[in-house]
Amino acid sequence: MNSTGEICSVPDFLTSASRRASVSASHPVMPLVEITIGEALRQQARKNGDATALIFADDEIDYATLYARVDVLARALIALGIQAGHRVAVMSPNAVEWVLLEYALARIGAVMVTVNPAFRSQELGYLLGQGKVSALFTVRAYRRADIAEDIAAPLPDHAEADPVCKMP
Question: I want to staple 136 with a disulfide (CB 3.0 to 4.6 A). Which of 19, 71, 89, 146 is the partner?
C-alpha cells in the first residue's frame, strides 16, 4: 500500500511477460531433478568418495565417510523409533553432527526442525508444541546457557533424560 492507502501495482513496463523474459535471460531455468537428498549423497559417495565433502574447524570428511556416518546415524534414528514424517528438532550451533543429522533425517523421511540454541524454555516450549516435534537433539550447553536446564521446563516428563546426543 502507498501512503494514501491505495494498493500499489507493478508498473506497466514490468508486465508478467517482460518479467519472465528478463528473469530467464539472466537466470536460465534449470529442470528439476527427481532425486532425494539421500540419493544425491549416495551418488556423490560412489562417484567422488575420496573428495572432500565437509570441512568444519579441524574436521575434514570425504563423501565416502560422510555417507557411511549418515547411514549409521539413520539406522540409529530408526532404532529409536523415528519414522518418515516425524518432526525432529535439532538445537545446536553449527557442527558436523548437525550436518549428519540433516542428511540422516532426510534419508529416513523425517523432517528436521531447526531450533536456535539461544532459545530459552518459553520459546523452546512454544516451538516444540507448534512444530509437533517427536524428538529433540541438542547440545548440553551453548554460550554459558545450560540447555539441559532450559529444556526441563517445557519437557517436565523428560527432565531426567540426557539431552546430549553423541554421534559416531
Answer: 89
Q: pLDDT per residue over 85-98, tens digit each?
A: 999 988 877 888 88
Helix (H, G, I), strand (E, B) or coil at 54: strand
Q: What is the pLDDT of residues 37-88, one digit of tens each?
A: 888 999 999 999 999 998 988 889 999 999 999 999 999 999 999 999 999 9
The three-state secondary structure class of 52 is strand
DSSP per residue, 105-163: HHHHT-EEEEE-TT--HHHHHHHHHHTTEEEEEE-SEETTEEHHHHHHTT-GGGTTS--
- Is the pTM higher than 0.85? The answer reads no
Q: Can you tell me the distance from the alpha carbon of 15 to that of 159, in angstroms, rounded to the nearest whole number?
A: 58
Give the pLDDT confidence score for residue 55 in this predicted structure: 92
Tell me phi and psi for residue 70, to 5 degrees.
Answer: -65, -40
HEC per residue, 1-40: CCCCCCCCCCCHHHCHHHHHHHHHHHCCCCCCCCCCHHHH
| Dihedral sign from CA coordinates of 14, 31, 40, 38 | positive
CB 100, CB 88: distance < 8 Å: no
State how far the Cα of 160 lies from the Cα of 104, in Å rounded to an integer.
26
